[in-house]
Specification:
The complex is a heterodimer of chains A (234) and B (225). Chain A has 234 residues and is α/β, with parallel strands linked by helices. Helices cover 33% and strands 15% of the residues of chain A. Chain A is globular and about 50 Å long. Helix content of chain B is 39%, strand content 21%. Classes of the chains: A alpha/beta (234), B alpha/beta (225).
Amino acid sequence: MIGYFGYPDPQIIEKAVREFDGPFIDLDVEAGESDPDFLNSSSCRIVRNIIANGLALKEKLDVVLASVGPEKCDGGRYAARILAEEGLNVIESENLNMTRRPLIISIAKAPLTEKVDLVMKSIIEPIETKLIECKPKAGFWGVPPNDFRLLEPFPDETHIFGWIRCVEAGVPADLSYELEVEPDLPTVYFAQSFCAKSNLARRLAENNRGLYIDCDRRASRSLISRIEAFLSLG
Amino acid sequence: MLFADCGSSYTKLIGENDESPEIVSTRDFLGRPAQKITAATGHLGKKYTDVFIGELEALALGAREVIEDDDFTVVDVGSRDVKIIGYRDGAVKRLEWNDSCGAATGLTIDLIGRYYEIDFGEIEPAAKPAPVTCGVFGIERIFDSIIEHGDPSTGIASFVGGVAANIFRTAGRPEKLYLSGGLCKNKLFVESIRRQCEPVLLGRALLAIGVRTHFRKKSAHMTKI
């Protein structure tokens, strides 16, 4: 089993495919594992997922491909160190590619949950899709939320911005691209609670036609209602 | 036609041409024979109608119906939650809804008033509101007041002042704050808000008005189709 988190350098992913047996498992995604006691509960849920999943799968993981550069965050860098100290085989990676690929999924008509899932899967292997571009009715900016229910209120004609768009374009460390938005498009600017990106999200929401939201583990009823109300009133 | 805001403690009903709502305790409303509700919002609203609208949307539509400004902030303090909507240049800029802790909302203030048998209208707002990060812990102020002054009034004033200060801060410290909900009738709360900014009272019908507006728009759209 090959574990990974963030968006490792594609060359390192290719090398891992040659040297180890799959399947690939995204350690960013919550899988019901308990957090180890040494983790701070007021820290990013995604980083806690990485460490909890890594430790739970320790005996099954041949390797962990760890994003530790600006395409991820310091939280990822520290998680890589913690997993290595706990005895896992960690290969650190920085993905600094700045040559953008054309977008298909982020600007297509399809349920937002499906689009986000497809983009994240494209990290490991190219996705064949017949999705068709659409004119946007709303925007979602940010990273994949820990709770995908946040994405359910959005119309199919939602365009994706922020880090997820950067991932599809192959440039996860391109901050300028991450900050490109459509100012007049009603957009929900999302960050995981305790994430440094929350400052970007809040600022973008304030300066454009946006709603800032953050969420830790589970989306509350009021949070979903705020999204629904914004998309309706937007 | 009848439009309803079915809250946890009170249900507000408004007809097609009414300006003020009928207010009935939700417990009594649930005990009524099945009543035809045209459209509704609120925690229990979905049970009574096929035309349901979320509470934040109802509050926003009701506010847009009665407030002429394009820049405004409206707060609805209910029994168990607080909703805040801010508009700027006619567009929604702020949508807040704290439904995870009702300790510093209408029900807590109501319970305190009943327990100590006090008239909120006879208590002066506190010069210095207490920091009320949690309504349950904030009740300590009232206990301290009884110990120090022999009566709870000072503590209650500090507590209500603290709730008002929290709402003012969460609303973004506006110069003017439109107030919706039962606390519009609580003189101590209103005067505590006045210590922070100018309060404008909108009464208890705002969400029901918003439901009615939503239904009218929906009907007009269907007629066009």
